[in-house]
């Protein structure tokens, strides 16, 4: 019997696959199951419970598939391990039933953009490819039909922690910076090794694409005995690098012949997106995509919401929603990539941020900082002597009105919070949507009326 903990996208997908393969399955969720997922379980006559975990029934399982959000310190997981019941991820389970090749992406920042871009490049090049994983789509459910040649899979460290037999054909590691350390005994080495699990079981015919300019990757990669063919990338050409930038072109030497990819038509901005583009282009080439097809795909790509997403322009001022930037490094990349003067909107639930690395960019580029959160003292202390104007509010409508009053033609109003959103919003998506709606309401509509 398979017990599944968590009835979200991954859990329900795993349950549907287990049922399709003739396995006995039971789903348990400590919270309330969303109606759409509950309907899927009921339609397939899959037994489930919500609002509790019935330990006796779960611990009678031969194997447990758990949601990535459930930590190892949860009582039910500790008891399962004490009974030597295997605890795995939905990705591990789904991959057992697939004949496809897996292109897998992980890293602290940039995973979703790189996953979407890799998928888009292959799709527009004519490949039979599907998305799965941490991007919000269940691999296990797709594997029921298993019609894809490739799955492009975004993987979090939490998913990687419960993957054992899984093997990627092409694996990408973008970067390693401190994040989620509460799940790793506040030890960056433990977190780094979790990320590097993406290389496990790989063979010389598989490819590990990684950022050679990331210090933590270099430090910890030497501790991993991977058999994969190493494919390092970097912004600047140097010894051993297989893909790097030269002007608006990516120069590669990975398929037996040098390739040059023109990226000038790409809408992505900022140094972090140069890294993301390098990784995605390299993966597409290794999968067999032709250079001219990759160039066509770069020109037509549109990133996911809340990631340096333009949401309006009025009176010569551009408004950008970067609500997904919930840590300092993500904000650094946003500030570095924008060349115009910036009205910066930041704040929320601080995650132990050290703003020191942002100060040189703030001094150079930021005209005003508007704090959007309940506790803004740390931002005031960090930037009080760096940014000429600092204001605060707890209203997204007011933050846009303040930004509109402060901005001049040629400026960028940037929501890039560096903080979690839970003080004023449900999540970063809610924060980003609220900002975009306020821009429409207070800026674009008024601009239309003035015409």
UniProtKB/TrEMBL annotation:
InterPro entries: Folylpolyglutamate_synth_CS, Mur-like_cat_sf, Mur_ligase_C, Mur_ligase_C_dom_sf, Mur_ligase_cen, MurD. Its main location: cytoplasm. SUPFAM superfamilies: MurCD N-terminal domain, MurD-like peptide ligases, catalytic domain, MurD-like peptide ligases, peptide-binding domain. GO terms for molecular function: ATP binding; tetrahydrofolylpolyglutamate synthase activity; UDP-N-acetylmuramoylalanine-D-glutamate ligase activity. Keywords: ATP-binding, Cell cycle, Cell division, Cell shape, Cell wall biogenesis/degradation, Cytoplasm, Ligase, Nucleotide-binding, Peptidoglycan synthesis. Residues 306-419 form the Mur ligase C-terminal domain. One of its GO terms (biological process) is regulation of cell shape. ATP binds at residues 107-113. It holds the Pfam family Mur_ligase_M. GO terms for cellular component: cytoplasm. It catalyses: UDP-N-acetyl-alpha-D-muramoyl-L-alanine + D-glutamate + ATP = UDP-N-acetyl-alpha-D-muramoyl-L-alanyl-D-glutamate + ADP + phosphate + H(+). Residues 105-284 form the Mur ligase central domain. Pathway: Cell wall biogenesis; peptidoglycan biosynthesis. The keyword Cell wall biogenesis/degradation applies. Its EC number is 6.3.2.9. It is found in: Cytoplasm. NCBIfam families: murD. Cell wall formation. Catalyzes the addition of glutamate to the nucleotide precursor UDP-N-acetylmuramoyl-L-alanine (UMA). Belongs to the MurCDEF family. This is UDP-N-acetylmuramoylalanine--D-glutamate ligase. It comes from Adhaeribacter aerolatus. The gene is murD.
């Amino acid at each position: 019997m398979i017990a599944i903990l968590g009835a979200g996208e991954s859990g329900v997908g795993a349950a549907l696959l287990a049922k399709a393969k003739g396995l006995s399955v039971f789903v348990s969720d400590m919270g309330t199951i969303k109606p759409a997922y509950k309907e899927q379980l009921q339609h397939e006559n899959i037994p489930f419970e919500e609002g509790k975990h019935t330990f006796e029934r779960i611990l009678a399982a031969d194997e447990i598939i758990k949601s990535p959000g459930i930590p190892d310190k949860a009582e039910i997981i500790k008891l399962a391990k004490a009974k030597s019941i295997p605890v795995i991820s939905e990705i591990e389970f789904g991959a057992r039933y697939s004949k496809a090749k897996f292109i897998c992406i992980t890293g602290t920042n940039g995973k979703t953009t790189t996953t979407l871009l890799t998928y888009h490049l292959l799709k527009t090049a004519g490949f039979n490819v599907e998305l799965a994983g941490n991007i919000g789509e269940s691999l296990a459910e797709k594997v029921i039909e298993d019609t894809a040649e490739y799955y492009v899979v975004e993987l979090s460290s939490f998913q990687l922690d419960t993957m054992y037999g899984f093997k990627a054909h092409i694996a990408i590691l973008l970067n390693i910076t401190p994040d989620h350390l509460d799940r790793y005994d506040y030890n960056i080495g433990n977190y780094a090794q979790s990320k590097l699990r993406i290389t496990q079981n790989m063979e010389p015919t598989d490819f590990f694409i990684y950022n050679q300019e990331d210090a933590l990757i270099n430090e910890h990669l030497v501790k991993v005995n991977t058999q994969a063919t190493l494919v390092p990338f970097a912004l600047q050409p140097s010894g051993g690098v297989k893909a790097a930038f030269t002007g608006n072109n990516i120069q590669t030497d990975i398929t037996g012949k040098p390739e040059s990819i023109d990226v000038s038509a790409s809408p992505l901005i900022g140094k972090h997106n140069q890294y993301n583009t390098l990784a995605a282009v390299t993966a597409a080439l290794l999968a067999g995509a032709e250079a001219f097809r990759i160039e066509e795909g770069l020109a037509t790509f549109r990133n996911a919401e809340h990631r340096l997403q333009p949401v309006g322009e009025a009176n010569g001022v551009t408004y950008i929603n970067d609500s997904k930037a919930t840590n300092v490094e993500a904000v650094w990349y946003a500030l570095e990539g924008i060349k115009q003067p910036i009205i910066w909107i930041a704040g929320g639930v601080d995650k132990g941020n050290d703003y020191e690395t942002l100060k040189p960019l703030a001094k150079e580029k930021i005209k005003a900082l508007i704090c959007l959160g309940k506790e803004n003292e740390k931002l005031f202390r960090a930037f009080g002597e760096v940014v000429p104007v600092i204001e605060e509010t707890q209203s997204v409508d007011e933050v846009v009105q303040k930004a509109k009053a402060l901005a001049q033609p040629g400026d960028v109003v940037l929501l890039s919070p560096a903080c979690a959103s839970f003080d004023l919003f449900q999540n970063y998506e809610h924060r980003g949507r609220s900002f975009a709606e306020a821009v429409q309401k207070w800026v674009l509509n008024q601009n239309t009326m003035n015409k």
